[in-house]
Amino acid sequence: MESQDQENKTRVVKIQSKDSWESYLSQATNQGYPIVTHFTASWCMPSVVMNSFFEELASTYQDVLFLTVDVDDVKEVATKYEIKAMPTFLLMKDGAQVDKLIGANPDEIKKRIEGLVQSCSGYVA
C-alpha cells in the first residue's frame, strides 16, 4: 500500500489561482522554506517534458516547496514575474525572487536548486 500512496502522491503543488499562489508564498516565507516554481503551459512540449523531472526534484529536495503555474490559467502570477517563455523556473527565498532560469535544462536547474538550498540551510541532497 505504501508504494501505491507514493505513486499517487505528488510533492509538486499546482497553483490554481492568484490567491492560492499568495497563500503558498506566504506560508513558505513564514516557515523559512525556499520555493521553486515551474511556469508551464499545456501546449508547450518542452514544459510538459520537464514535469517528470520537476517531480523527481521535488522528491529529492524535501525542504523546498515546489509549485507549478500554468501561465494560461494563472495569468496574474505569470505577468507579475514577467514570464515570457516556457518553461521558466523561478527560485525564491524569503518571499523574493533570487534566480530565474528560462528553458528546459535539467542539469542547470538542479545545480541552481542545490545552490538555493545550500544558501538557505547548508543542506545538501
TrEMBL record:
Q: Which residues form the Thioredoxin domain?
A: 1-118
Mention any Pfam family matching this sequence. Thioredoxin
- This chain belongs to which protein, by name? Thioredoxin-like protein
